[in-house]
Fold this sequence. Notes:
There is one protein chain. By secondary structure, this protein is mainly α. It has 21 helices and no strands. The radius of gyration is 23 Å and the shape is globular.
Amino acid sequence: xxxxxxxxxxxxxxxxxxxxxxxxxxxxxxxxxxxxxxxxxxxxxxxxxxxxxxxxxxxxxxxxxxxxxxxxxxxxxxxxxxxxxxxxxxxxxxxxxxxxxxxxxxxxxxxxxxxxxxxxxxxxxxxxxxxxxxxxxxxxxxxxxxxxxxxxxxxxxxxxxxxxxxxxxxxxxxxxxxxxxxxxxxxxxxxxxxxxxxxxxxxxxxxxxxxxxxxxxxxxxxxxxxxxxxxxxxxxxxxxxxxxxxxxxxxxxxxxxxxxxxxxxxxxxxxxxxxxxxxxxxxxxxxxxxxxxxxxxxxxxxxxxxxxxxxxxxxxxxxxxxxxxxxxxxxxxxxxxxxxxxxxxxxxxxxxxxxxxxxxxxxxxxxxxxxxxxxxxxxxxxxxxxxxxxxxxxxxxxxxxxxxxxxxxxxxxxxxxxxxxxxxxxxxxxxxxxxxxxxxxxxxxxxxxxxxxxxxxxxxxxxxxxxxxxxxxxxxxxxxxxxxxxxxxxxxxxxxxxxxxxxxxxxxxxxxxxxxx
Length: 517
């Protein structure tokens, strides 16, 4: 195991070194939170794929393959479908807004001040997403070093907190790209062919396993539908995903780079299901499907390769954990803390304020320092909660149910329906979120009814309250259209009005604006 240990230790030290290097590039709020909005197609595609494919997609995807066969791919399939939909239909518009958070987008669209309420929902989601990723360190480090659960969580969480705090999104981008490469080599190029070969190939697996294991819907139609509602729609609205969209240097990068990452997810889904199916053929009596990944790695791989594949699993967890952590800290600082402290204007100006801050080194330093402090605070909270919490599935379900049930309708409604109003959006967030919580308390956390009823309630109240009240102020919609078209916005020095900015946008056509706006 000495060789495997060496591979993993070198990998972990490398992550810290990249984080230290990234610190030199984080000179402004824009650099720290969204990598200066300068990522090209290669970095953007790799890091987007890295953040959406975490421990649940890797270890969990193999476990679903072990339990259900090829249909276990549906979990990661729905993640890929959601990322493709985001990239093809919304990413270019989102990128043009030049904001930092989903809640700032809601304020910009509706002209209200929803950041604290919607930010609280998004903060809860990103916090629990970071927690579930951090808990996974216990499993991986136990396989690698036999560490105690608490120590494993502190070690893994501490490394992620360190490089995320040092360089913000620049460090996370660089480490995620390295993690994407390690994950691709470890899972797709090594573990997949070795596992399938040891199981006798597809023909050998078909001889040893029931026919259901090769049925595309063995996992169940209702389960697939629930995955679509939770994970596909979750990809459309999560702060952790949007914050990566904000890093793209152009509309084209956001659209095409995200689409490449979505296709990669589909390939990764098939790989995970095949690895799990092969593990079932080789080791049919494991105590738990979640043990499938560790078993196939520990029993089937040669020395050195085992270390690289375990590093790949660690990469998957770290990329999701760091992305969720910076998203959680960004929301806590910019949407909740600053609003409660009355340090921001009622309407967000996106990069307008950032550009002014960037012009003054002292102000820029204060912005970076403030966000860095929040990453430390949120990171410490994530580690403490992870140590105290055991049920990862329930925590992840609660996070996605609150996100989709509370925020899907007002976010997508704002993008496609101009009659939606601030009161409708706030009512939708409150009623949708409350309904999800009530249904989970009544039917159980894992019950599908929570997301079904929550989404329906959120949609009905959004439409009803919006139609019953006055339409959104035309001036607000004019600035919204200008931003969507890539025109000038509050805080810029062009002097153009929001209305004129819509027609004078460079690099964007009016045809790209949502049909309903």
